Amino acid sequence: MSIRDLVPFGREQRGDLTTARREAESPFARLHNEMDRLFDRFYTDFFGDRGMLERQRESGEFMPDIDVTENNKEIRVSAELPGVDEKDIDVELDGDMLSIHGQKREEKETQNEQWTRRACTYGSFLRRIPLGITVDESRITATFNKGILKITLPKLKQAEETGKRIKVTPG
């Protein structure tokens, strides 16, 4: 075994013949090799020239960042949706599952005296958030301002009062 075999990235470029033979012989060797490739891609994405976010932008994929906070009275969900219009957002509650679905459409045009360049990017997203409790559906509010979607889901009274402090005694 050489020292290069211990490096967790760059195995794909080396084209090791013993690895190909091991893969053909054992399913565990194939699993091991697939795990190596997974880590290779992770290190390339994390430390490489092109990160995952850049590749998502180039491919048109869009996955909004979401923050979920909870206190005794409500659950608050905040989603960053830059470049998304209010009319292209759907928010649904099905039982204790909150779904945020939308489409992003972006069109850029650059003109020069000799040429015109148009770039159109379309993509949809779906985020599902399990709440874990029943909320008061009649008091749910959602606001959208400057690319930020804020959803407030008030808890039902019974969900607010379920916590009880239990005294621990010695013995």
List the topology elements.
Elements (H helix, E strand, L loop, with lengths): L10 H4 L2 H9 L1 H21 L4 H8 L6 E5 L3 E7 L8 E6 L2 E15 L4 E15 L10 E5 L2 E7 L2 H4 L11
Antiparallel strand pairs: 1-2, 2-7, 3-4, 4-5, 6-7
Describe it for me?
The model is unreliable at about 50-55 (pLDDT under 50). α2 crosses α3 (about 25-45). This protein starts with 10 loop residues before the first helix and ends in an 11-residue tail after the last helix. With about 170 residues, the protein is of the alpha+beta class. A hairpin with a 2-residue loop joins β6 and β7 (about 150-155). The strands form two sheets. A four-stranded antiparallel beta sheet has the order 1-2-7-6, with no helix packed on it. A three-stranded antiparallel beta sheet has the order 3-4-5, with no helix packed on it. It has five helices and seven strands. The chain is flat. Helices cover about 25% and strands about 35% of the residues. The longest helix has 21 residues, at about 25-45. The chain folds into two domains: about 5-50, no CATH class; about 60-160, Immunoglobulin-like (Sandwich), CATH 2.60.40.790.
Summarize the entry for a quick read.
The protein has helices at residues 11-14, 17-25, 27-47, 52-59, 157-160; strands at 66-70, 74-80, 89-94, 97-111, 116-130, 141-145, 148-154. It has 171 residues and is an alpha+beta fold.
